[in-house]
Amino acid sequence: MTKEELCGAACSMLARSYAPYSHFPVGAALECADGSVFTGCNIENAAFSPSICAERTAVAKAVSEGHRDFVRIAVAGSTEQFCPPCGVCRQVLAEFAGDGLEVLLVNSRGEVRETTLGALLPGRFDSGNLT
Ligand code: THU
């Protein structure tokens, strides 16, 4: 899948977002090493804390289908400002991906900003710290 296609997949998930409280739809598309793609959207809850971000929805779909080898994720916001993954999502991505994971941010104008998980989460804590 091209970067444009992955960003398009993330953008198309904005329509599936359930965000009646924040009114801040987010979509994500997570690409694995074998080319498979898992999409997600944010899903909010009246109790607030059970809400889940688009990125973690995509991670849960991928891992529960047996895919853990992530290479790229696109995150689409619905505003002109880019929507970078929150701290919790960065940590969850770091469980399954190295610093080189490509992170593509897409804004409402279709502009794309490229970064990496290593740039977003320097000094990560992961299983290596438990030994
Ligand atoms: N949100 C995401 O889906 N991904 C992020 O990384 C940032 C925040 C969602 C959570 C909540 O539903 C809404 O955006 C406002 O914070």
How would you describe the overall organization of this protein?
The chain has 131 residues and is an alpha+beta fold. It is built from 4 helices and 5 strands; from the N terminus they run H-E-E-H-E-H-E-E-H. Strands 2-1-3-4-5 form a 5-stranded mixed beta sheet. The model has no long low-confidence stretch (mean pLDDT 98). The structure holds tetrahydrodeoxyuridine (THU). The site of tetrahydrodeoxyuridine (THU) has 14 residues, from helix 2.
Q: End-to-end distance, in Å? A: 37 Å
The chain-level structural class is alpha+beta
Radius of gyration: 14 Å
Major sheet details:
5 strands, mixed
Gross morphology: globular
Determine the number of helices (DSSP H or I, runs of at least 4 residues): 4
What's the number of extended β-strand segments?
5
Q: Estimate percent helicity.
A: 25-40%
In round numbers, the mean pLDDT is 98
Strand order of the largest sheet: 2-1-3-4-5
Write out the distinct hetero groups bound to the structure.
Answer: tetrahydrodeoxyuridine
Strand content: 15-25%
